[in-house]
Design brief:
single chain; mainly alpha; Helix Hairpins; two-stranded antiparallel sheet; 3 helices
Length: 99
């Protein structure tokens, strides 16, 4: 069971990182909007990873909020996260039934 849980964690991390790089590229481009709460002068990748993980897990917005066209990427990642987490729960349930 531990292997299943570790495997699911490893499966979700690349999705979060890919989206984080997408947010970074979109945030640096003026025409796609920005993420309110990330200071442009002190940008580090961990801010984008944090924002991406909050959106992916559908925790909710608080200190970081998307503004402009970047909201479409935010909505898409929320849907992907919902689908992937739901799939993970189903996969875990099936794996637990076998044991």
């Amino acid at each position: 069971m531990l292997v299943v849980m570790f495997g699911l964690l490893v499966a979700h991390i690349p999705d979060i990182w890919i989206s984080a790089f997408g947010f970074m590229i979109a945030h640096r481009s003026a025409e796609y909007g920005h993420i309110r709460g990330i200071d442009n002068g002190d940008i580090i990748i961990i801010d984008y990873i944090y924002y991406s993980s909050v959106v992916y897990t559908i925790v909710g917005f608080g200190d970081l909020v998307s503004v402009g066209a970047i909201r479409m990427l935010t909505a898409a990642e929320g849907l992907v996260g919902l689908a992937m987490i739901t799939w993970s729960v189903s996969f875990t349930f099936i794996a637990m039934q076998r044991f």
